[in-house]
Design goal:
The chain folds into three domains: 162 residues, Rossmann fold; 146 residues, P-loop containing nucleotide triphosphate hydrolases (Rossmann fold, 3-Layer(aba) Sandwich), CATH 3.40.50; 62 residues, Alpha-Beta Plaits (2-Layer Sandwich). Strand 8, helix 13 and strand 9 form a beta-alpha-beta unit. The longest helix has 31 residues. The protein contains 17 helices and 14 strands. The chain has 434 residues and is of the alpha/beta class.
Length: 434
């Protein structure tokens, strides 16, 4: 790309104190603030930050000037000085004025949860589309906050909060930033058109599409690798996968589907990021079946599932057929396993157990497979035979005078799309053997 997208200068390592403000509004929301802070630790470590200490303040409402109270600001300053820290990371989103005031009071870099997540995405982006999407999200987030981040960029150089848009970009005026945002949107539109064309070709080919979704680090990429023997990047950290990866998965009956791994979701996923990545996330909308991968061993399991459901709702994919995969069962206690839902639509699995992988393939096949139908087709109608192969698997054929009798195990998604073409040749329906 012509534009340098992220700065890899790490002259000063990030040594940070993490800060969480528990307000009455947060308490009413039911959010587990302790879990959220632990997740912030993991986010910081994923970004390469050394976490020094954590501070928590209970307060009715945020302070308009400092976000936290003035006394807590003094305490934070002392803790930073005591540990030799140079960064404070807040678990909630800050305004530009609050960032500026805290920078001046603490003489330190100030980062909030949103900016930290954006920074991790900047580290992970590899494809042109991913890089464009991340920079667009970063600039959209930073534009109203520019006055609160200049000190970070000019004084500390490198590290979290400075990856993505280079220093020179952020020090120009808002008009130039808006121009860059417009340019990125145009580039993204071109990439999106290409993705739609590619998606359209896949749809015309009749290939069934299955999407993996889930909270970050739930094990989606591991499952993709195990189910498809794919050579994909696996790492036990947050947002190890950013760009969607698609591979062929073979089902027990011999048919094939396209299995796509998508970016992991997280609590308070920045809206700008969801908006910028909408083209990528729409892979979920195009899927015939969604596999919701859940870390069954996580203490935050139910909360993480709600986050995923909420984002699927935002994407307009909440009504997609779903199969819930409770992953990492080998890391669960007996009590945790007993508490998990069971029955149709749920599987308890380990991505490393061959029997469980077979169970996933069988469940996918069952969810995608429709009835066994019989079609009477004139012997010369090769075009109709082609359509039968398009909507399912021809598992039997027989001649009857001038007609051919075909027995077809239909694929639900394909038959819903193209069944009307062969409907007039359907002779009878009998219950599926599946």
């Amino acid at each position: 790309m012509a534009n340098q997208t992220y700065d890899t200068n790490h002259e000063i390592p990030d040594r940070a104190v993490l800060v969480s403000l528990v307000t009455d509004e947060v308490k009413r929301s039911g959010m587990n603030t302790e879990h959220s802070l632990q997740e912030l630790v993991r986010l910081a470590e994923t970004a390469g930050v050394e976490v020094l200490e954590m501070l928590v303040q209970n307060r009715d409402v945020p302070d308009a000037r400092w976000f936290i109270g003035k006394g807590k600001v003094e305490e934070l300053k002392q803790v930073l000085e005591m540990h030799g820290g140079n960064t404070a990371i807040f678990d909630q989103e800050l305004s530009g004025a609050q960032v500026r005031n805290l920078e001046e009071a603490l003489d330190a870099k100030i980062i909030d949860r949103t900016q930290l997540i954006l920074d991790i995405f900047a580290q992970r982006a590899k494809t042109r589309e991913g890089i464009i999407q991340v920079e667009l999200a970063q600039l959209t987030y930073l534009l109203p906050r520019l006055s609160g981040h200049g000190k970070n960029l000019s004084r500390l150089g490198g590290g979290i909060g400075t990856r993505g848009p280079g220093e020179s970009k952020l020090e120009t005026d808002r008009r130039h930033i808006r121009g860059r945002i417009g340019d990125l949107k145009r580039q993204l539109e071109e990439v999106t058109k290409h993705r739609k064309l590619h998606r359209g070709r896949r749809q015309k080919s009749g290939v069934v599409q299955v999407a993996l979704v889930g909270y970050t680090n739930a094990g989606k990429s591991t499952l993709l690798k195990q189910l498809t023997n794919a050579d994909v990047y696996i790492e036990n950290q947050l947002f190890a996968t950013l760009d969607p990866t698609s591979r062929i998965m073979k089902l027990p009956g011999g048919s094939e589907v396209i299995l796509t791994d998508t970016v992991g979701f997280i609590q308070n996923l920045p809206h700008d990021l969801v908006a910028a990545f909408r083209a990528t996330l729409e892979e979920v909308n195009e899927a015939d079946l969604v596999l919701h991968v859940v870390d069954a061993s996580s203490e935050m399991r139910d909360e993480q599932m709600r986050v995923v459901d909420s984002i699927l709702e935002e994407l307009g994919a909440a009504d997609k057929p779903q199969l819930i995969l409770f992953n990492k069962k080998d890391a669960c206690t007996r009590e945790q396993l007993e508490m998990l839902p069971s029955g149709t639509g749920y599987l308890k699995i380990s991505a490393f157990a061959e029997g469980d992988l077979l169970a996933v393939r069988e469940a996918v096949q069952t969810r995608l497979t429709g009835d066994t139908l019989t079609f009477r087709v004139p012997a010369g109608r090769g075009d109709i035979l082609s359509q039968l192969h398009r909507v399912g698997e021809v598992i039997g054929q027989d001649a009857d005078n001038d007609d051919m009798i075909y027995t077809v195990q239909v694929h639900k998604p394909d038959y819903e799309k193209y069944g009307y073409i062969v409907e007039s040749f359907k002779e009878q329906v009998r219950p599926s053997d599946q």
